[in-house]
């Protein structure tokens, strides 16, 4: 196995997965009361001038807490730099959860977290700007649709994961490409439908 350290380098406890597990678990446990205090501030100390954004802020705060918990306690990915390799060493691994499922869960949590930021910006847009009545009608279905479809973007990765962990790279690539092709029509229909809706909304807004 190729090593990127010098021959005289002595590996210590700081280089081990055990140190990563212990440090992240401690930080994760310490962050729980901090997140709880943040939720308390959002719920009970938010000024009345920001009442309209309270739910969006609480949603973002809650998703931040879940993402933090996923990385520090539940999944705890251990990266092997400079190679793009990671191994889950958290509680889920102890419970025997599928590593591919853990990876997809981390991706989904990040995607939902990023979209919650978009929700906050959309909320500010609704409050500050004089939006068209059509957007007021479609914004809630749009938010629900967006949150509901986020998990499906990681579905091809989960389906393309080989059942045999010793599968060669070429065979794994063939499986991944075949799954992508099989699901391409489904995702293309979704994007085409969303694009048509956006075009129709723009046409109506210009009138």
TrEMBL record:
UniProt key word Zinc-finger: no
UniProt xrefs under Pfam families: 7TM_GPCR_Srh (PF10318)
Superkingdom, taxonomy of origin: Eukaryota
Transmembrane segments: 20-46, 58-80, 100-121, 142-161, 173-199
The UniProt record lists the keyword Membrane: yes
Key words, A-Z: Membrane, Transmembrane, Transmembrane helix
InterPro entries documented for this protein: 7TM_GPCR_serpentine_rcpt_Srh, Nematode_rcpt-like_serp_H
Protein name listed in UniProt: 7TM GPCR serpentine receptor class x (Srx) domain-containing protein
Organism encoding this protein: Caenorhabditis nigoni
